[in-house]
Write a structure and sequence with these properties.
8-stranded antiparallel sheet; disordered C terminus; 5-stranded antiparallel sheet; about 475 residues; alpha+beta; 16 helices
Length: about 475
């Protein structure tokens, strides 16, 4: 717990940065997160602007045995970017983006949102592989692997990551790349923020055609069978320039749950119309497909995935061919849950069909990311408002993601090389990092002991002492066992 005198001392040491404490102007606003379930009352929020200031906070927290956490976009649901009584290293003021069109590179500070990167790159006719919700922070999405609309053509975000600048557990500012600290760079690409506070990312840029063809279409629930058929046919086409999401939610102004779809084609409208023509034949009650700038596509989900309310996310993987009867069962589960908790009607269950050929081209041992299988992601975002419903909503999310995961295991080959789990959609609440990192787990544990033996970075997708001791029996000395968590 940070005392007021220590908070004053931190402010004195952090020249040029703002330190917010309870009662100071801006403190309450600084605690807000994408999900209210992730909000905690910090002892201090250090709004840093340089890597050296980040290093100062980490050094200070270690010296005084105070918890420190890093906030990038604050888009998680389990509170890993928040601290009860500790210090939050708030990177939100570190949001500079530098585009180098000659060398096809984009440098972005750790506090950037994807909207910042998308818009800066668009000024040069370029794009980076990024997320599908533009108010997500770049840090979390990148360190967990990173899927986006351009993944089918260019791979994961980490497959387009050239180097990072980070502050390590010893408060040193270091660069990790294929040439510098290559083992650390390997770990950072997929194992979350277990190894440092990343303050700058350098991405490979790609030429981006404009406009693209994209939009959303909404259907009654009784159209599930033709939508599943379209999804199966779409997957068979293996189009690296197109993606398709479908799922269940209650759209704004709708009386109840409906089938919601989102399509994307990275090209001209004529071909986009051809690809999605069978979808429109199913008879949407609403659709807004059309040409738009690529940087606007990541804003299509702004309203359905907006800030506010209580949320929890659970992820699984799925594989084609999709069986209509299984998805009818999933639909019934969701409707039954909403009957029980009506305030959760805006909850969202989505199946994301992004072509995985490019992802699988990268050897499974090349990065810490352990999910390069022939799968698609499924994500359940349960949303509600009253804390009294917390247990019901968390339990439903857990049961639903397990049901989808079990279905994958029955129908596909899930193994230690490709675990069928996506870090950014999962909470590792059982302390078993081997279930997320598969055959990479032992190497990650060794790197954790090398780069962070006192477990400074212990929250965000962490390879923590609990995992080391439980899975490998190592004596971790001063490491404090903590629950593995993902944000």
């Amino acid at each position: 717990m940070l005392s007021s005198s220590l908070a004053q001392q931190l402010q004195a040491e952090l020249k040029g940065a703002t330190v917010l404490t309870p009662g100071s102007e801006g403190y309450e606003e600084s605690l807000k997160r994408w999900s209210e379930t992730a909000e905690k009352r910090a002892g201090a929020v250090a709004q840093v602007t340089t890597a050296e200031q980040v290093a100062t906070v980490i050094r200070f927290a270690r010296k005084h045995h105070i918890e420190q956490v890093v906030r990038g976009g604050g888009h998680g649901t389990n509170g890993a970017s928040s601290s009860e009584g500790g210090i939050v290293i708030d990177l939100s003021k570190m949001n500079r983006v530098t585009v180098d069109p000659d060398n096809m590179r984009i440098e972005a500070e750790g506090g950037c949102l994807w909207k910042d990167v998308d818009e800066a790159a668009a000024d040069y006719g370029l794009a980076a592989v990024g997320g599908t919700v533009n108010h997500t922070g770049i840090g979390g999405l990148t360190l967990g692997g990173g899927y986006g609309y351009l993944t089918g053509r260019h791979g994961l975000v980490i497959d387009n990551l050239l180097k990072v600048k980070l502050v390590n557990a010893d408060s040193e500012v270091v660069t990790a790349s294929p040439e510098e600290h290559p083992d650390l760079f390997w770990a950072l690409r997929g194992a979350g923020a277990s190894f440092g506070a990343v303050v700058e990312f350098t991405y490979r840029a790609h030429l981006q055609r404009e406009p693209v063809w994209a939009g959303m279409a909404v259907f009654p629930l009784d159209k599930l069978t033709p939508i599943v058929k379209f999804a199966n046919d779409f997957a068979l086409s293996a189009n690296a320039d197109a993606s398709f999401n479908f799922g269940f939610t209650t759209p704004p102004h709708a009386p109840g749950p409906m089938l919601v779809t989102l399509g994307f084609y990275n090209g001209l409208g004529k071909e986009g119309k051809r690809i999605f023509a069978p979808l429109f034949e199913a008879g949407p009650v609403f659709q807004n497909f059309g040409p738009m700038p690529y940087c606007k596509v990541n804003g299509l989900l702004e309203e359905s995935a907006g800030h506010g309310g209580r949320k929890v996310i659970g992820g699984a993987a799925c594989a084609t061919p999709f069986a209509p009867e299984f998805y009818e069962e999933i639909k019934k589960d969701l409707l039954s849950f909403i009957d029980e908790v009506p305030a959760a009607k805006e909850s969202l269950l989505v199946f994301e069909l992004v072509h995985h050929g490019k992802v699988q081209e990268v050897d499974g041992s090349a990065t810490a990311f352990a999910n390069r299988g022939p799968y698609y992601n499924a994500v359940c975002m349960t949303k509600w408002n009253d804390p009294k419903d917390d247990d019901k909503c968390r339990d439903f999310t857990s049961r639903l993601k397990e049901k989808v995961s079990e279905h994958l295991i029955k129908t596909s080959d899930v193994n230690a090389e490709s675990v069928g789990k996506y870090l950014n959609y999962n909470d590792l609440t059982d302390g078993r990092s081997d279930q997320m990192f598969g055959s990479h787990d032992e190497k990650l544990v060794a790197l954790k002991l090398k780069y962070d033996p006192t477990n400074v970075f212990n929250k965000w997708g962490a390879v923590t002492a609990a995992a080391v001791e439980q899975n490998h029996g190592y004596n971790t000395m001063n490491l404090k066992p903590r629950q593995i968590a993902v944000e």
